[in-house]
Model the fold of this input.
Amino acid sequence: MNKIAEAFNNKKAFIPFITCGDPDLETTKEIIKELAANGADLIELGIPFSDPTAEGPVIMEANIRALENKITTDDVFKMVSEVSSQVQVPLVFMTYANVVYSYGIDRFFERCKDTGICGIILPDVPFEEKAEFEDAADEFGVEFVSMIAPTSEDRIDMIAKNAKGFIYIVSSLGVTGTRKEFTSNIAELVDRVRKNTRVPCAVGFGISTPEQAAEMANISDGAIVGSAIVRVIAEHGKNAPAQVGKFVREMKEAYYVS
Done:
């Protein structure tokens, strides 16, 4: 069983997202350790990018702060290589095609393998154009994670049947960010995905409260929380690790409240 599959093995996975280098890479390392210690089952790491088209204002601003610190992809790889041996949960990159292209596709995935990255999510790469990235990812043992949105429609079955690692189900239309309401047919979407694959699926985009996390985990195999955590980091800066740990612990504990 690969590390991503283990994150979902006999439990509902809690998956936090953070932007690397916000507020700085040393703090990012401490946040990753707090995430792992307080209930994260898999951690998504954003590589700073100047045009993160899937992101709302909270994560966009985190990217800006990291880039103002002159954080590079090499810096992120170095940080991951230092922290990956200190946590047991799988680490997955969420970034954009241009980041991988600019670095060199084969070189990028070789570095992923060497530094302990288990998977990658590229929200701006459609299913029909993923082969160039996925072939290289496969060569180096990195799972290419697919995304399915309410607008995927007749492509849902095809995407699900070809999925690896886990499936990222987008809860609602638009960009990331906290929401009060989600697309009403998420449960139907999850059911359709499950008819086409045994790969686990987790719901993300907009989950900001313990109650929402528990609701989405109950519907699917896990919940993904990004903007709400990034907002805690923005508020507390270098003092964020302990606050993030507390926030994540409350989120994960909600899974088990009947």
Strands lie at 13-19, 43-46, 91-94, 117-121, 143-148, 167-170, 201-204, 222-225.
